[in-house]
Amino acid sequence: MALLEIKKAGDPVLKKICAPVEKIDKRLRKFLDDMAETMYANEGVGIAAPQVGESIRVCVVDVDKKNRYDLINPVITFREGSVIDNEGCLSCPDLFGDVERAEKIRVEYKNRFGKKKTLDAEGLLARCIQHELDHLDGQLFIDIAQNITKGRKKEN
What we know:
This protein is α+β, with helices and mostly antiparallel strands.
């Protein structure tokens, strides 16, 4: 595995709408593992392909360091409720802001072996998935956040 360079706000790759993944193979699985290693090394809970320079519809999420999800071509098919919470991003170091997200979601995706999966998520997992899927559509959290601050995450 290898650590990848995290692209920062202002890099054009972060504003592109990502292309669907056509082929799930050993190369893509290695890329997912490299993304995960990069995420863990930077104390993140999610990372999307454009954050490491690849404009494809792939992200990795692990909010509890126990349940890693490799999401390929993910689509949110259900949203319920609304909650505002503070977010940060590996591509926007030291910036935090309040973002309104759905409280519960259902996401359909393919896993690292091409199997179709459905995941019902709520809380931090739902928030993280929505944040990463925004990256796949060329949107950063700072594009939609309120009360952006520099420094430490605001404690609730």
